[in-house]
Each structure stands twice: as structure tokens, then as C-alpha cells.
Amino acid sequence: MNRFKKTIAVGMLLLLMVGILAGCNADELRYWNQSVRLYKLGLESDSYSNGELKLNVDTKALVSSVEDAEELKKMMPAINLLEKGSFKYEVEQSIKNDQQSVKIYGKADPTAEYVSYFEVLRVNKINYIKVAPIKSFIQTYLAEEADAIKFINAIPEDVAYIEITDESLVSELNSDSTLANPLGIDYTQKMMTMSNTEQAKSTEPFIQVVDNLLRKGYDGYSMDIIRQDGNTFKMTMKFSDLGDILAKFLNYTLDNSDQIQNALFDGLRQVPASALATMVAAEALTEADKNKAIDDMQVMAKEA
């Protein structure tokens, strides 16, 4: 039971962070609904999706904060990408066949052609990452980062793909204390034994928790940076506004803490005990145990 409460506490923090990335104005809700629709479509059948994100970040505050001219020169490719960059993505997946591919393209110059930044093909829990796009991205935007250059230089010239298994990713995650999964190695190992369909369906109830949190907890909150233009969603933000955005989110959370807590706990109560048991790698969890733990967490939250 203590492990369950700890997991729910971690989950609460993760869910509350959603408020920083989303909001509840009309366009933001449409963006959220579209994301959920695509996710559910991937559970039911083979799917393909693509999209485009255009950046328009005001970096004046960032540029003015860099006093060293040489350092600023090194940062300019990345700054240009933030100011005028565009990204396109293509995602194909067949969860039932355990196969997905993700391709990300980008450009810093609006008049230029898109180039590949990242490509990965995942088949039967093995990830094949294409080397050429990674090398190109690092050489263009991270040329002054010694560790990044060392990484790509260590890859033999005749290697086209880097092969990484899910098992090795989990092992690396759990061996690094700075990256350790807050739910623990039991959870990650259990998820490894599940099919993609089982994994996806086990997380589906938590999408409903986030949905409930947005609509009933953060219904009066908006970042006001996502706008729909036809079939495209555009995100516009000034770098200097990041602090104000965070402060706005924290203030709204504090001013509406009771409403947000109620929305969160109500959403958690709707998650079947079996789904929560999967998330905490428990053999079994009764509805009574689940509700008792949530009751205890709700009391603790009100007393805090």
C-alpha cells in the first residue's frame, strides 16, 4: 500500500505538470482532443499521422544575457532555429504488429528545404536509429559541444543504424540514478514483458485522468500560445515569457487548489484497480484498496 501511495504521489506531480504544456481555451482543447484521437486510433488499427510546427520564439532576452561574443557565436545556429525554425514529423505505427516509425524533419531558414533530423524504426522491441540525420543535426547545431561531437565521431563510417533494444534502454535507465524511473525497476521490467497493445491500453485510463484534470481542474487556465490555423496548430512564445508562464500556472494552481485536487482524485477513482496495479507492478489491487489509498492521499493533500 505504501508503494501504491508513493506511485500515486509521483503520478500527481506528473499530471499537474500537464498544466504547463496545455490549457483550456478552444484551440488548446482542440489540440488535446486531436492528440487523444490519434492515440486511440493507433490502438485500434494501423495509423499514419504527420504535422508541422513553426517556431517563433523571441530570443532577445537570451541573446542579451550572453556576454561572451564567442559563446554567442557558437549559440547562433540554435538561436536561429528557435527564432525561425520549422519542424515536420511523420509517425506510422501498427501496435498490434509491434512496429512503429518516427521521422522528424527541420530547417532554420524558412526558404530552405526540410532536412532529416531524426529517424527511428522500432520492430519487435528493437529500435533502429538512423545515424546520418543525428550526425547532421549535431554538426549543424551542436558543433561546439564536445560530448556530442565525441559521440558521433565514435560511430564507424560504415554504420548506418544504431540498434538499441528496449531491454538495454530499461537497464540504462535503472542504472543511472539521475534517470531512475520513479515507479521503480519492477514497473519497467513488467512493462517490458507486455505487448505494445497491452502497454498502450494500460496507459489509456490515465489519459482520461489528464482529460478530467484539464476540463474540471484547469478549465479557467490557458497558456494562450497554441492557435489553430486551418488544419495546423501553431505555437508562438517569447523566450522572455517563460518565467511569466510558469508563474501564471503556479498562481492558478495555488488559487484553485481544491478544485484541481478534486478533479485529480475524481479522475483517479475512475481508473480501474487493475490498471493501477499494472502501473505499480502489483500482483493484484482491489477497488477497496485503491479507494482507501486515494482517500488517504486526499486527506494528506488537504492538510498540506
In short, what is this structure?
By secondary structure, this protein is of the alpha+beta class.
Structure explained in plain terms:
The structure is a single chain. This protein has helices at residues 2-21, 26-44, 60-65, 69-84, 131-141, 146-153, 166-175, 185-192, 196-217, 242-255, 257-269, 273-279, 287-303, and strands at residues 47-54, 86-94, 99-107, 115-123, 126-130, 161-165, 226-229, 232-235. It is α+β, with helices and mostly antiparallel strands and 304 residues long. Strand 2 and strand 3 (99-107) form a beta hairpin. Helix 1 packs across helix 9, helix 9 packs antiparallel against helix 11 (257-269) and helix 11 (257-269) packs antiparallel against helix 13. It is globular and about 60 Å long. The model is unreliable at 1-20 and 177-185 (pLDDT under 50).
Jot down its keywords.
globular, alpha+beta, 13 helices, six-stranded antiparallel sheet, 304 residues
Q: Secondary-structure map with pairings?
A:
Blueprint: H1 2-21, H2 26-44, E1 47-54, H3 60-65, H4 69-84, E2 86-94, E3 99-107, E4 115-123, E5 126-130, H5 131-141, H6 146-153, E6 161-165, H7 166-175, H8 185-192, H9 196-217, E7 226-229, E8 232-235, H10 242-255, H11 257-269, H12 273-279, H13 287-303
Antiparallel strand pairs: 1-2, 2-3, 3-4, 4-5, 5-6, 7-8
Helix pairs in contact: 1-9, 1-13, 2-9, 7-8, 9-11, 11-13
